[in-house]
Amino acid sequence: MTANDRTAVLFSIGDDDRVWPGFADGETWNGFDQIYVTPETRDAIAAYCLTAGGQDQSDDLNTMPLTPDGLVDMVGWQTVALIRTDVLDDERGDR
Predict the structure, then answer these.
(1) If you write DSSP's letter for every residue of 66-91 in order, what string do you get?
(2) Cα distances (angstroms) measured from residue 35 to each of 7, 51, 78, 82, 86
(3) Could you say which of 17, 36, 40, 52 would form a disulfide bridge with 23 (CB–CB 3.0 to 4.6 Å)?
(4) Cα 91 from Cα 95, distance rounded (Å)
(5) Backbone angles phi, psi at 89, to 5 degrees
(6) pLDDT digit of tens for each residue in the chain (95 aa)?
């Protein structure tokens, strides 16, 4: 599966209101959408976790594996909520 097989989405993590860009493939883990992000988005989320006192979450996020197409597989990391699934295709970049 590649990023082109996934839908560009906006999502939030846990109870936090901050919204992040990512990709979903329509699958769920433990009832929550499976989310994939670019390494840049992963780094931004990890930095945000640190500012909120989430050293463990930041460390865990930095160990998430990359998919063959270079996205970070966040499946099973934290609960997420999809905010929008109608993000324009051109937001996928060249993936």
Answers:
(1) BPTTS-EE-TTTS-EEEEES---GGG
(2) 10, 22, 10, 9, 15
(3) 36
(4) 10
(5) -55, -30
(6) 555 688 889 988 877 788 999 998 888 878 888 889 999 999 998 888 888 777 777 788 888 889 998 999 887 777 677 776 665 444 444 33
